[in-house]
Amino acid sequence: MIRYIIKKFYHSLFTLLGVITVIFLLFNVLPGDPARMMLxxxxxxEQLAIIKEKLGLDKPLATQYIYYLNDLSPIxxxxxxxxxxxxxxxxxxxxxxxxxxxxxxxxxxxxxLRESFQKNGKKVSQIIAETLPNTVILACxxxxxAVIIGIVLGISSALYKDxxxxxxxxxxxxxxxxxxxxxxxxxxxxxxxxxxxxxxxLNMSGSLIEVDDFGNGKHITWKNLILPAIxxxxxxxxxxxxxxxxxxxxxxxxxxxxxxxxxxxxxxxIVLKHALKNALxxxxxxxxxxxxxxxxxAVFVEFIFGWNGLGKEIxxxxxxxxxxxIMGAVLIIxxxxxxINILVDIIYAYLDPKIKLE
Length: 358
Fold this sequence. Notes:
The protein has 14 helices and 5 strands. By secondary structure, it is mainly alpha-helical. It has 2 domains: 29-109, no CATH class; 124-351, Orthogonal Bundle (MetI-like fold). The strands form 2 sheets. The chain has a 3-stranded antiparallel β-sheet with strand order 1-3-2, with helices on one face. Strand 4 and strand 5 form a beta hairpin. The protein is globular, with a radius of gyration of 25 Å. 29% of the residues are buried.
């Protein structure tokens, strides 16, 4: 197990390096000038040059890439770096250990995601720390809805194969997988947040934490989670239903299930105690990818419902060409995806003893 985790860790480092390289090249060749957007209408050539120098945008792309890797690396090297890149002296790095040599400084630190171009130099890590929890809560709620309802409907569909119930659930599953999230978000917000507002009590938009209109500070509004969580959970719900149905039907046709039936065990005991555990394997594998995808796929849902999460922050950053925020958010999502995949492999091996981690 430990050997497998170490092996996956090294593979993950190379994957992350590839992700870092791709997003750096992608977002640094986009049309538009962040320095000009920062100055807005107050632009002049002198100020523009100062901003570009401060942000390092006046350097060759290869040099900017090396500086970016140095910022992200837990171990950074500093030698003859221009003043505006000496983050150690300006406390921009969260340094754990620093070793000063004659012409080189070696620092052990937390990865530095740089500062926002648009939010008065606010650290990207701080922005993500403020918005990511809301997205995680939304994604977990959506997954919970998809898992609970999807497994129940999937089992029901398998046990009543080819009946009207099975066909009805199949239609629901197909619709869930087919409807785009942004369309479902608009539809649910309009119907349940506007047309049926007096009945449901739900709002068209709103975040988890809201500021009281009467000056009583902030408060948590859990009802604002209901609509975005349902919308975000619709597509994985459809996938879970189909996977659960097909997997359970396959397991129920195996020899050991027929043996259990011959011993006189009830259908409920056969399903819950013998078949369900093995039938869950493909569902867990699919959900691992869905959870990480939700962190990225929540962009449209959060934007439409006004949910102050990482997805909405990415949209705002794209509109203002706030590259550090976009790149930092993508890196966090990629890292989460990698960690979840490793955890799911371990869980998968626990559920199925025939699988060995190597």
